[in-house]
Design goal:
Blueprint lengths: L8 E5 L6 H10 L3 E4 L1 H9 L4 E3 H5 L14 H8 L5 H9 L7 E4 L4 H4 L1
């Protein structure tokens, strides 16, 4: 069994923010760099967390009323990269892509939104 890499970067994009502050505090205390989207980023930043904005990181804004936020190669490559593959690591380096060892999401209330 392959051992999971240590968590260095987390991507957080949640609709329901219940418990998020305590969870993010644990990540911060562990030295994890947090990337986040609009409302989640604001929620965390308003509570004093250092949060990197996904739109700034990707160079691409949120669109369609915030429904499209993380659908970008810099996000997918950071999630799907294989840490034990030199070619994957080189691709990340070539394109200035961070890895995401942890992804935290919950779905927005779809029926209420549509």
């Amino acid at each position: 069994m392959t051992q999971s890499p240590p968590i260095k970067h987390a991507l957080i994009s949640v609709s329901d923010k219940q418990g998020l502050e305590a969870f993010a505090a644990g990540l911060r205390d562990a030295g994890v760099i947090i990337y986040s989207t609009g409302g989640t980023r604001k929620f965390l930043a308003d509570r004093g967390f250092a949060v990197l904005d996904v739109a700034e990181y990707t160079g691409f804004p949120e669109m369609m009323d915030g429904r499209v936020k993380t659908l970008h190669p810099k996000i997918f490559a950071g999630i799907l990269c294989r840490h034990d593959r030199a070619d994957d690591q080189q691709a990340l380096k070539d394109h200035a892509i961070s890895t995401f060892e942890l992804v935290v999401v919950n779905l927005y209330p779809f029926e209420e939104t549509v």
